Amino acid sequence: MVKEIDIISIVLRLPGKVLSPNSRSCWQARAREARNYRQACACRAIAALGGQRPMWECATILAQFYHAQARRRDDDNLIASLKPARDGLVDAGLLADDVGVTTLPVKRYLDRDNPRVVFTITRGTGI
User: Fold this and answer.
1) What is the pLDDT of residues 65-79, one digit of tens each?
2) Torsion-angle region of residue 15: left (phi > 0), alpha (psi -120 to 50) or beta?
3) Rounded to two decimals, what is the model's pTM?
4) Cβ(89)–Cβ(41) under 8 Å?
5) Which of 12, 19, 51, 74 is 20 to 30 Å apart from 64, CA to CA?
């Protein structure tokens, strides 16, 4: 009997600066970084799912950013830079589509030794 999954967490590196909506980088660099980040998220999600493909219709995502430097960052830009990661969750088979996803406000922390982003994806809507 396969146990149904209701929540998973995955850890990724921080998205590259070129994924920010305010980036003035070349479209090729942005496309390359988006592809790599999407694939990394899909691989981590597949590993966390243990081979299952639940195809949730709706989910809630909480993103916790751990930055190495304590400086101001715009929440909207942080969320927008995670678009390739959301697409990676669809590629992994966790989500049927990213239309039914509720994104909670990001949380920001300081971790000088291990900058990262932690995604907690919960089945269903959180609001």
Assistant:
1) 999 999 988 999 999
2) beta
3) 0.91
4) yes
5) 51
